[in-house]
UniProtKB/TrEMBL annotation, chains A, C:
Annotated protein name in UniProt: 2-oxoisovalerate dehydrogenase subunit beta
Species name: Actinoplanes couchii
InterPro entries registered for this protein in UniProt: THDP-binding, Transketo_C/PFOR_II, Transketolase-like_Pyr-bd, Transketolase_C
Record keywords: Oxidoreductase, Thiamine pyrophosphate
Domain Transketolase-like pyrimidine-binding: 2-177
Automatic annotation (TrEMBL), chains B, D:
Keywords: Oxidoreductase, Pyruvate, Thiamine pyrophosphate
Classification via Gene3D superfamilies: 3.40.50.970
Family matches, as NCBIfam families: PDH_E1_alph_x
Protein's UniProt keywords contain Oxidoreductase: yes
Pfam families in the record: E1_dh (PF00676)
Protein's recorded name: Pyruvate dehydrogenase E1 component subunit alpha
Lineage: Bacteria, Bacillati, Actinomycetota, Actinomycetes, Micromonosporales
Listed InterPro entries: Alpha-ketoacid_DH_E1_comp, DH_E1, PdhA/BkdA, THDP-binding
The Dehydrogenase E1 component domain, residue ranges: 56-336
Cofactor names: thiamine diphosphate
Organism: Actinoplanes couchii
Length: 325, 379, 325, 379
């Protein structure tokens, strides 16, 4: 049993071993091993040319990663916290996302941008955000999020091995949660990077979650099961593109769906998923797809964040409302 | 007291800086830099004592905050330990009409503005986001995103000019604080661009505490930071940031230049972060004890204490008295921090927009109803 | 009859006249009058302190506007083209959007950020984008878009007079379209800034559009009318918040809705509107809410942009599909 | 030919620059800057003629492009008129292994790399986004968002170092082009930070053409731009950007410094944008005719022509011959531009991702079906 954070560390280590072109770059990723220690020990073992402590400049991190990628490298960039990705936003949406299209396929940017995201850790402003919709709305980027150690280990390697630019959202409040990870497993055997996974089968309704909210959804399903309601829980894993076939199949069976995420609801991923499900499963739906999300407010102060974050009760409440439709 | 021999200015050698008080408490009357500017201070005995009180108090309050954090009463704390002189010196150099834009570490500057030191504790305790009215205190809100406040300060300073509040001795000036790491942010360099172009009445006060979390200065620059200014068309100067007198003198001069219409200055206050980056950090992973020891010998408080003692500016029990007063303040602060109430959940929805929003009203209503559904259920 | 561009120019002029604290700032807004001439003549008449040519730095434009607003000014910032707002994204989402919340209401930032947006003008890359979803998803920002000269004239003044930060999207390909504008009208008499407006009443289905797509929706409605199908067209005008009561009332009447926008569909505004309509009007819907949007690709080369942009045919096709459900 | 008397370097006076060829066609053998660097060129007669051919050809092709735009055959065009010497000089200074990162105006540099000048016309005609393989041509794609390519160039240069391709005379160097306006962008200043910190083998080549669209240089800086470099720890130098010889000499030296491991240089090529910003611009709104006239006297082509004539380097009919050749090239270019096919609509969906996406496949299928539904309907 290792933690999700440690699983990422192992995955990064293996990527560095497997391909000499892989480089890790970011603020404090070297001696410190990152503020969450995800890159712990890597600079020591792979040197300062493979694990690069950078100046304090996020546009610089992504912009130079683009140049390194053109040169043939595979940069894995760490953004220290969700709220600090915005200085790099221009490089990400105007360059990273568009260069393959612009070049008619002649330039590949196999860049991974790791972003610890989400709340629930009692932090100050800018340290608890869920900016995934900003990236999912951007054509040219792939967006994924892991929810458990085993996925963390394989998905980070898959993301690095992929020639697509990948925004890799790490559920920071799950960094310390443990799970079984087979460190000897081969990548090709892993679930594909862009596949959703039914993490708990059920029949009454479909819960859709990703990253930190998968645990919440699973807990809600356990609680509902005690009341005799079997909820199916799907871990989306990939946020762009979304693995819709799995979702449609589930919702056609259950007739009800609830999407859960921390990000504000307005124009969030939940909206897209609800809209798509409705387009595709219109006659199967017993109730509208409901959303349990953060409110449309800036992320609040730590002492009141639990009221902001979707939790078991709010998920069950939504399920109840779905059944009451 | 001898005339300072150190020559400092836009072409001071690496490591050179304006210093008026040595680590041993030796005092230079004045220092003249290469460009002919002479820096000196002319304090009364009581003013020297006041500076000492400030230094000790801000350190003592900081120590209390560190303890509160360890005890779980604060979510995080960014300690100013080691940077007291840079903050008190520059803070005291501000005139009442001046405006300061801090980072998240300027508790000492805040204190010298006469602000109740509890003001930023809401932020660190997590009961609020640290909001106050910048114009009421002439002290902007803490800014966490590195460097962003330098542009705010620049815009504010442009407004000062537009209001016709520069060009005379009672004009207004603006000071923007930031760290060595921040100098790498594009936004900070844009602030330099704008300030040069608009001749903004602003002082850029960079506390070079040698680290940006774990990253040493070499990760941000290979030449002294004060030299950055020249390329934007305004002077840069390095000052001994552990010397409260020099920090005061240099900042006062730069602010007065700004208020009289002579435009921006970049001050690099050369200092050291004696503690961890924040309470979440473990500096033993990236720096060696001997380096910290070497900087201990340059402590900003002990040198002023040595000076006060040698010059017989203080009575026998002065130091103990100052310590006592500081402790009283710290305990009072502690008590008031512990008494800070948690926010009411429904306040989540307040202040998103000055004019509100029907969508938020709807969400607030749903939330309130939902909360009410748990009443009596022990939730 | 004046053009939409000229109406904006008149509105800006009046705002400058009405309040000495209003300042216009941006690249080339002075002598040149902006690349679209929206600020034509204003620097000449109000001086360089009121109409400020800035350095070429978007973060600087918004960041200094924040400082000016703290100082008591009401900055109206011009971003030259949609694709160049991203260097300012950090200042917009982390500062402009959050400062009122952070300060518990003590700091107001009455900043307007004008962004000419959308395609159809045959431009090169980065000059034809529709980034409104990035801003609508950000709590703390209000987002609006005008579609005709009369609204342009009043809405820009309302946005400037509002203490909320407003992202003001101008439909650049409609800058040259003409309409009646009553330049003597008083602001309080105008439709409120955040109200949607039924621009063509109808009964068969509801078309929802904003900015440049309102014209397309109206044209589609005219064409449908010839075939005996009366479509209701709603100009959203406000994109965040959206004026839902008007929409729900309409869709409950018509039973069908189609949302039209140029931005890529994935996690776009259409998704949110579709999800909300479905939540609120579930039993009234005869078909899922359909979306006619840009595809999930980077904005394409000019010679093929007409295939990318929603047009009359695609809107009518969606209406047909709705009726065929 | 006299030894150049102009002294230029990191402390040259405002307006001073490295010049080897005066507007009248006078030639200095060499120029020595304050830091002791001597700049000179040692061209054969044929090389001089070649440079002249380049200058004339890139101007002629540019003229053709302007005409094509006026005739509606291009959506927009960014003319290099007036900047030929800066571009040909710096472009010819590149060695085959070097890598260039242009803006949207470096048609002259592109030409000197031996690339078919039609390459960027897809972008300006609107049939594509201007994509090519940077590594094939050692010439990156045009970048429209101001300044972004400077970070790409810096990262690429870091990669050169990581590959061990610096430190010798046949090492690789990188050149990043940008304008005077771009120097205000945060990202460009971050590129300076990074290049200094990592001692990247890069030359920042700023064509100061005095304007960023309508904004004159004073809106970006109040001191000469080349001085920006010092604050980041590398040299800056101003060169007469209308002098192809000096542009060559200074760039060649800076590139060689970079390839041998001596790190970055900022070159400010002092020049003038003789035409409109782009075909969409109307410069009469913001600048006076006399200014343009004054710069006409400094034309980069006429001075080389004067030199060639005075030195009797060319035969009688050389100039006419060069003009003819250039015209032939221009007409060939025109013909091929007109023949550029419009893209097939369904290619919209190509190349979004190297690995594709099932969602895009779905959209492509819907699109194809929808398109097919119009077949025969005359749509
Ligand atoms: C844009 C951004 N990136 C990263 C961070 C995370 N972070 C917080 S403090 C810090 C280091 C700041 O160093 P410096 O500017 O030297 O100030 P100091 O903390 O030493 O006072 C970092 C990287 C941040 N707050 N903002
Ligand atoms: C980030 C960004 N903002 C604005 C623009 C619009 N724009 C295109 S060119 C230009 C001026 C560039 O001036 P300069 O850097 O001097 O280069 P020049 O065009 O003179 O060669 C502007 C503002 C842009 N392309 N990118
Ligand atoms: Mg620091
Ligand atoms: Mg220019």
């Amino acid at each position: 049993m290792i933690t999700l954070g440690k699983a990422l560390n192992h995955g990064l280590r293996r990527a560095l071993e497997d391909d000499p072109k892989v480089v890790i770059m970011g603020e404090d990723v070297g001696k410190l091993g990152g503020v969450f220690r995800i890159t712990d020990g890597l600079q020591k073992d792979f040197g300062e040319n493979r694990v690069i402590d950078t100046p304090l400049a996020e546009a610089g991190i992504i912009g130079t990663a683009v140049g390194l990628a053109i040169r043939g490298y595979r940069p894995v960039c760490e953004i220290q916290f969700d709220g600090f990705v915005f200085p790099a936003y221009n490089q990400i949406v105007a360059q990273v996302a568009k260069m393959h299209y612009r070049s008619q396929g002649k330039v590949r940017l196999p860049i991974v941008i790791r972003i610890p995201f989400g709340g629930g850790i009692g932090a100050v402003e800018h340290h608890s955000e869920s900016p995934e919709a900003y990236f999912a709305h951007t054509p040219g980027l792939k967006v994924v999020s892991c929810s458990n150690p085993a996925d963390a280990y394989s998905m980070i390697q898959q993301a690095i091995a992929s020639d697509d630019p990948v925004i890799f959202f790490e559920p920071k409040r799950r960094y310390w949660e443990k799970g079984e990870v087979d460190l000897s497993s081969a990548l090709p055997a892993a679930t594909p990077l862009h596949s959703a996974r039914i993490v708990r089968p059920g029949t009454a309704a479909t819960l859709l979650a990703y990253g930190p909210m998968v645990r919440v959804a699973l807990d809600a399903a356990s609680a509902a099961a005690e009341d005799g309601r079997e909820l199916e829980v799907i871990d989306l894993r990939s946020l762009s593109p979304i693995d819709y076939p799995v979702i449609f199949e589930s919702v056609r069976r259950t007739g009800r769906a609830v999407v859960v995420h921390e990000a504000p609801g307005n124009v969030g991923l939940g909206a897209e998923i609800a809209a798509r499900i409705t387009e595709e499963c219109f006659y199967s739906l017993e109730a509208p797809v409901l959303r349990v999300t953060g409110y449309d407010i800036p992320y609040p102060a730590a002492r009141v964040e639990e009221e902001y974050l979707p939790d078991l009760d709010r998920v069950l409440d939504a399920v109840d409302r779905s059944f009451g439709w | 007291m001898a005339k300072g021999e150190s020559v400092a200015g836009t072409d001071i050698p690496a490591g050179g800086f304006v210093q008026l008080l040595t680590p041993d408490g030796e005092r230079f009357d004045s220092v003249t830099t290469a460009d002919g500017t002479t820096y000196s201070v002319d304090f009364t005995d009581e003013e020297y004592r006041e500076l000492y009180r400030d230094l000790v108090t801000v350190r003592r309050l900081d120590t209390e905050a560190v303890a509160l954090q360890r005890q779980g009463e604060l979510g995080i704390w960014a300690s100013l330990l080691g940077q007291e002189a840079a903050q008190v010196g520059s803070g005291r150099a501000l005139r009442p009409q001046d405006m300061a834009f801090p980072t998240y570490r300027e508790h000492g500057v805040l204190y010298t503005r006469g602000i109740d030191p509890i003001m930023p504790f809401g932020l660190f305790r997590g009961v609020d986001q640290g909001g106050w009215d910048p114009n009421e205190f002439r002290f902007n809100q803490y800014t966490i995103v590195i460097g962003s406040q330098t542009l705010h300060a620049t815009g504010y300073a442009m407004g000062v000019t537009m209001d016709g509040k520069t060009g005379s001795a009672d004009g207004e000036a603006v000071i923007a604080y930031f760290g060595d790491g921040a100098t790498s942010q594009g936004e900070v360099n844009e602030a330099f661009v704008w300030s040069g172009v608009f001749n903004a009445p602003i002082v850029f006060f960079c506390q070079n505490n040698q680290y940006a979390i774990s990253e040493p200065l070499e990760r941000q620059t290979r030449v002294p930071l004060y030299q950055r200014a020249g390329g934007y068309g305004f002077p840069g100067i390095r000052v001994d940031g552990n010397d409260v007198l020099a920090s005061y003198a240099v900042t006062r001069q730069a602010l007065d230049n700004a208020r009289t219409g002579q435009g921006p200055t970049l001050i690099e206050a050369y200092t050291y972060r004696m503690g961890a980056h924040t309470s979440s950090d473990d500096p033993t992973r990236y720096r060696i004890a001997s380096e910290v020891e070497a900087w201990k010998a340059k402590d900003p408080i002990s040198r002023l204490r040595a000076f006060l003692t040698k010059q017989k500016i203080v009575k026998k029990d002065f130091f103990a008295q100052v310590d006592d007063e500081a402790t009283t303040k710290a305990l009072d602060l502690r008590e008031r921090v512990l008494a800070m109430p948690d926010p009411q959940p429904v306040t989540l929805f307040d202040h998103v927009y000055p004019n509100g929003s029907p969508e938020l009203d709807r969400q607030r209503a749903v939330f309130t109803e939902y909360q009410a559904s748990f009443e009596g259920s022990g939730h």
